[in-house]
């Protein structure tokens, strides 16, 4: 497969870091971005130490100036964008701080649109582009106390469908990968929050809330998401666009 320049947002840890490392191992050049530049730097350094090609940049997807500055500073055009940056806050709506609500939507929905909008003209100019949004099972179903997160992730699917139609005249695709729970630092924090909210132990949160809806009763692996992302870059996936690829252990089959 042709070597591509791939930009991953929120790649300083967790899913973003795993996807970046996997794609670098396939010979691609990775632009590792994160709100925390030190975290992005560590991931890029690990990729280079393993024989791959990578560079690290600070990026705040919720800030127009940050996105514009990064695009202007990149030494080579971006072929593939992985929109992964995200955060969580667990609270019933009546207690949900609206500033926090706005931040979640800004990062996970508006931020996705902002970075996609900035890179799309270059993809059109070169006649190739792949955009992969890291969504969630919560792009399809809801959970209590996660109104901002669920709203933002639901929005990703609609956003992807619109961009798929707008780019149908070019070799550009956009899809949203929707996993159920992946064991990352973000999910570990959710476990603690849910335990406090429901008044139960953390093990009970895992068994009764997170894994209970999944017939396979297992967390999704970062390697699975990395492999799916890699597949979406291949010629075999050139006509897969505007889709939600659901990786949920059977959750939505019920």
UniProtKB/TrEMBL annotation:
It comes from the Bacteria. GO terms for molecular function: 3-hydroxybutyrate dehydrogenase activity. Keywords: Oxidoreductase. Signal peptide: none annotated. Its EC number is 1.1.1.30. It holds the Pfam family adh_short_C2. PANTHER family: 3-OXOACYL-(ACYL-CARRIER-PROTEIN) REDUCTASE, 3-OXOACYL-[ACYL-CARRIER-PROTEIN] REDUCTASE FABG. Belongs to the short-chain dehydrogenases/reductases (SDR) family. This is 3-hydroxybutyrate dehydrogenase. It comes from Coralloluteibacterium thermophilum. The lineage of its organism: Bacteria, Pseudomonadati, Pseudomonadota, Gammaproteobacteria, Lysobacterales.
């Amino acid at each position: 497969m042709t070597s591509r320049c791939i930009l991953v947002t929120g790649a300083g840890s967790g899913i973003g870091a795993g996807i970046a490392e996997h794609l670098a191992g396939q010979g691609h050049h990775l632009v590792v971005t994160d709100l925390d530049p030190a975290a992005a730097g560590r991931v890029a350094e690990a990729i280079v130490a393993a024989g791959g090609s990578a560079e690290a940049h600070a990026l705040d997807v919720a800030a127009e100036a940050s996105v514009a500055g990064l695009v202007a500073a990149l030494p080579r055009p971006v072929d593939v964008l992985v929109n992964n940056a995200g955060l969580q806050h667990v609270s019933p709506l009546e207690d949900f701080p609206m500033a926090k609500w706005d931040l979640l939507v800004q990062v996970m929905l508006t931020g996705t649109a902002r970075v996609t909008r900035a890179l799309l003209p270059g993809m059109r100019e070169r006649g190739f582009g792949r955009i992969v949004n890291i969504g969630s099972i919560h792009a399809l179903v809801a959970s209590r106390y996660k109104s901002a997160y669920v709203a933002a992730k639901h929005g990703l699917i609609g956003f992807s469908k619109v961009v798929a139609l707008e780019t149908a005249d070019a070799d550009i695709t956009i899809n949203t990968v929707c996993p159920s729970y992946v064991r990352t630092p973000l999910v570990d924090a959710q476990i603690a929050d849910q335990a406090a909210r429901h008044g139960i132990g953390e093990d009970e949160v895992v068994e009764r809330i997170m894994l209970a809806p999944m017939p396979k009763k297992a967390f999704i692996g970062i390697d699975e998401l990395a492999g799916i992302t890699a597949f979406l870059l291949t010629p075999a996936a050139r006509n897969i666009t505007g889709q939600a690829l659901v990786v949920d252990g059977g959750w939505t089959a019920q």
